[in-house]
Amino acid sequence: MEDTISLKELVQVLRKRLSMIALITLGAMIVTAIVTYFVMTPVYESSTQILVNKASDDQSMYTTNAVQTNVQLVNTYNVIIKSPSILDKVIDELKLNMTTDELNDKIEVSTEQNSQVFTLTVKDTNPYMAAKIANKIGGVFKKEVKNIMKVDNVTVISKAQVPTGPVSPKPFLNIAIALVVGLMVGVGIAFLLEYLDNTIKDEQDIEQMLELPVLGVIGQIDDQELNGLNRAGKKTKRKVETVGA
């Protein structure tokens, strides 16, 4: 006969281990909160927007071809703006204590499809430095792209501002994830302990293990009841001896 677990049995297991599940979940949330607020370093993000808008000096009006050309150039500019020829100058001018690769890791360039605008985002543990680096990269790129591409078609349309709050870590999100993970771990441990527990506790366990019906149950007698029975037995014995005498 295959063992089957009913929904009622599952609920009983959860109720029996409810305190353990609650402690595991609460512990996970507390540890996550401590790590989030006191261990993890806040990271700030600042962005500047750059427009590729001028086709060339000999064109007096925008054309479809000119716009399409600028859109295609955005992908090229995304690579140039993160190149050592730009970042090395930014490091020298700001006197940053980092390598080109380290600065490159702080930068993210994104653009919308078929858009002439791309966004340069810088992440740093210092909010003021994040904005300063973003603006400096935009300025150096606008200056150097004239020499690299031999065109003047870049405009900084939005300067980076000092962020007011960090983008990571996110305390509420982390604690919510810890809540879910804690519940899952607690429930998993509860069912594991129940599965490993092979002790017999009642007649239902005997029926399930031996697959035999229980014909009777012997009740448990505590010490007080046992002492009472012994005293009653002694009194009965005295009465029998008295009658016999």
Write a structural description.
InterPro entries: Bact_polysacc_biosynth/exp, GNVR, LPS_length_determ_N. It comes from Heyndrickxia coagulans (Weizmannia coagulans). This is Lipopolysaccharide biosynthesis protein. With 245 residues, the chain is α+β, with helices and mostly antiparallel strands. It folds into 2 domains: 87 residues, no CATH class; 118 residues, Alpha-Beta Plaits (2-Layer Sandwich), CATH 3.30.70.1130. 59% of the residues lie in helices and 11% in strands. A 4-stranded antiparallel beta sheet has the order 2-3-1-4. α4 crosses α6. About 2% of the residues have low confidence.
Topology record:
Blueprint (H helix, E strand, L loop, with lengths): L6 H10 L1 H22 L4 E9 L11 H17 L3 H11 L5 H6 L1 E5 L5 E8 L2 H23 L4 E5 L12 H26 L6 H8 L12 H22 L1
Antiparallel strand pairs: 1-3, 1-4, 2-3
Helix pairs in contact: 2-7, 4-6
Family: Belongs to the CpsC/CapA family.
Membrane topology: Multi-pass membrane protein
Organism: Heyndrickxia coagulans (Weizmannia coagulans)
Tell how many strands the DSSP assignment holds.
Answer: 4
Report the top-level CATH class of the largest domain: Alpha Beta
CATH superfamily of the largest domain: EIF_2_alpha
* Large-scale geometry: elongated
Strand content: 5-15%
Provide the low-confidence segments as ranges: 57-61
* Count of separate structural domains: 2
* Helix content, binned percent: 55-70%
Structural class: alpha+beta
Entry keywords:
245 residues, alpha+beta, four-stranded antiparallel beta sheet, 2 domains, Alpha-Beta Plaits
Give the structure's gist in a few sentences:
By secondary structure, the protein is an alpha+beta fold. It contains 9 helices and 4 strands; from the N terminus they run H-H-E-H-H-H-E-E-H-E-H-H-H.
